[in-house]
Design a protein that fits this description.
Blueprint: H1 10-27, H2 29-35, H3 40-51, H4 67-88, H5 94-97, H6 99-106, H7 108-124, H8 130-140, H9 145-152, H10 154-160, H11 163-192, H12 196-235, H13 241-245, H14 247-261, H15 266-277, H16 282-287, H17 292-311, H18 323-336, H19 339-347, H20 357-365, H21 371-383, H22 387-425, H23 428-436, E1 446-451, H24 460-468, H25 477-482, E2 485-490, E3 500-506, E4 521-528, E5 531-536, E6 541-544
Antiparallel strand pairs: 1-2, 1-6, 2-3, 3-4, 4-5, 5-6
Pfam families: Na_H_Exchanger
InterPro entries: Cation/H_exchanger_TM (IPR006153), Na+/H+_antiporter_fungi (IPR004712), Na+/solute_symporter_sf (IPR038770)
Organism: Diversispora epigaea
Length: about 550
């Protein structure tokens, strides 16, 4: 019996290409990500473009069936899982701790971004109505959680981005994918209704109170129940290790499907469920050493951006819209989308999590446009009956996504190159001035930690004398309130201004009450003026008092 092999079998071709790319990418992944600082999205998109119809014509999603339906389903599943991963990775009760910062980013900043993007499109793109421009602007308003991972994860982020900024970007990018839905529906309600009043009323009742409000409530309940069930199963040894590790992925799929059945916003529900599920930090701490989520995250990122690269219709870029207008729109959107409003909000002290102007610039710049924009584009194509909007929407959105992938993908390497240039051209005198005022931290040395307060630096000497007595005076309440000594092992000496340390021995008074007893906690050291700042994973600052006399090493 002969078995006929179909060499043109599209499924086999896709599996072969995807598997081969992941193999070859894995062989040089450390070089790409940790040496060249290139994002997975940028590399995958370039590969998808090369393999797609515009170049080698090896990968052609147009032959798979209804491309719009495939794109809609693929992007939806990937976004739901990424939103869940970002939520689960946040510190304990993060939305409550940073409620004000998230509220500002999710409403005033998003509304500004939506309106300014709409005005830019209305001004630059010909034959586009104002409501059509608002619909397209809603597609590019959310910050993509997949592209944001390039600046919140990895070696560069650990060395140069403070934990509180990484957490803020992760939380915002996860939450605003769902919040973009009402902005899109606002334009469609006005398009479909003859009267403004009833349209706005339906928009508030359906888009906000039902689709968003009910999704939040359902997500919180499902996440809470899932956490209690998992804890009970783990406590009674009913669940194996493999099922425990993939629990968050299964929860994302279940929540996404359930809330979609009842007609609610699945991304907001996944965000709420993820935070409720990991509210006490237990699941994150139990799974952070397994790195399974990072593996799934990488596979999804590579697959979705290869797909995006292969479905870009290059011929549409210069048909309805002159190419120079697309470049002008891209430059305007990336520059004005959120950078001005985030910087202004930081200057007015409206975003507590953003503490310096440099952090404000960084947070404002990294609002990449990615998978979420393409997902909402598929919704626009489903709902609109405007032929002009259908013709314009695809080249506009895909060009902006491509521009964001390229620009944000090379931003980190450019920052790294500029840092090296500045390091090599700095004068010897300036090095001495900067380094001489810093406390020298050695391997195994004890340091005295003091929770950030408004105390004058003149109290440092008194605190140092009190800390010396800790070995002989156990239970001194004043010392316990202010800090304690820890034996540290500096694991990264490459960058003096941001050294990651691993606490290997500590006194109970070192950490906040809810984190006491932890024997291995990751911290980051940041130089701030005349003090070091030791910042833990939760973004809580503990200040090193530099004027203390040397403390002898703690001996067990």
């Amino acid at each position: 019996m002969m078995i006929e092999l179909h060499t043109e079998d599209e499924l086999s071709k896709v599996i072969c290409i995807l598997g081969g790319f992941i193999i070859f990418y894995g062989l040089v992944s450390y070089l790409i990500k940790e040496r060249l600082y290139l994002s997975e999205a940028l590399v995958s998109t370039i590969v998808g473009i090369i393999l797609g119809p515009i170049a080698l014509h090896i990968l052609d999603p147009g032959k798979w069936g209804y491309k719009s339906e495939i794109t809609h389903g693929f992007t939806r599943v990937v976004l739901a899982i990424q939103v869940m991963f970002s939520s689960v990775a946040l510190p304990r009760a993060y939305p409550i701790k940073e409620f004000k910062s998230l509220l500002i980013l999710l409403f005033p900043v998003m509304i500004f971004s939506w309106v300014i993007n709409g005005l830019l499109m209305w001004w630059i793109i010909p034959h586009l109505t104002f409501l059509g421009s608002l619909a397209l602007a809603a597609c590019i308003t959310p910050t993509d959680p997949i592209l944001s991972s390039s600046v919140v994860k990895g070696k560069f982020a650990e060395k140069h981005v403070p934990p509180h900024i990484r957490n803020l970007l992760s939380a915002e990018s996860a939450a605003n994918d769902g919040c973009a839905g009402p902005f899109l529906s606002f334009a469609f309600y006005l398009m479909e209704s003859e009267f403004v009043g009833p349209a706005i009323g339906n928009w508030i009742l359906i888009s906000w109170l039902y689709e968003i409000g009910v999704a939040i409530v359902v997500g919180i309940i499902l996440g809470y129940v899932a956490r209690k069930l998992l804890y009970f199963s783990e406590k009674n040894r009913l669940i194996d290790k493999e099922s425990f590790l993939v629990f968050a992925i299964a929860l994302a799929l279940f929540v996404m499907g359930f809330v979609s059945i009842i007609g609610c916003n699945d991304f907001i529900a996944c965000f709420a469920a993820g935070n409720s599920f990991t509210w006490d930090d237990w699941f994150r701490q139990e799974t952070e050493e397994a790195h399974l989520q990072e593996v799934i995250d990488m596979l999804l990122n590579l697959a979705i951006f290869i797909y995006i690269g292969s479905i870009i219709e290059w011929r549409s870029f210069n048909l309805q819209i002159p190419i120079w207008k697309l470049f002008l729109l891209s430059l305007s959107v990336l520059s004005l989308k959120r950078l001005p409003v985030v910087f202004l909000s930081s200057k007015l002290k409206l975003i507590p999590a953003v503490k310096t102007y440099r952090e404000a610039l960084f947070t404002g710049w990294f609002g990449p446009i990615g998978v979420g924009a393409i997902y909402y584009l598929t919704i626009v194509n489903k709902k609109t009956n405007d032929a002009a909007l259908l013709e314009i929407s695809q080249p506009v959105i895909f060009f902006l996504v491509l521009s964001s992938i390229l620009v944000h993908g090379i931003t980190v390497p450019l920052i790294k190159i500029s840092k090296r240039i500045n390091t090599r051209t700095i004068t010897i005198s300036s090095i001495n001035n900067q380094v001489s005022r810093l406390q020298i931290i050695k391997f195994g040395q004890d340091i005295v930690l003091d929770k950030r307060s408004k105390k004058a630096n003149g109290d440092a000497n008194n605190e140092g004398e009190d800390s010396k007595k800790e070995d002989n005076q156990e239970g001194n309440q004043e010392d316990n309130q202010e800090g304690g000594r820890v034996k540290i092992d500096i694991t990264n000496l490459e960058d003096r201004n941001s050294q990651e340390i691993d606490i290997i021995e500590q006194l109970p008074s070192t950490l906040p009450t809810d984190r006491r007893g932890s024997m291995s906690t990751k911290y980051a050291i940041w130089d701030e003026g005349d003090n070091y700042i030791i910042e833990n994973y939760d973004g809580e600052d503990i200040r090193v008092v530099p004027s203390l006399p040397p403390v002898p090493s703690y001996k067990q």
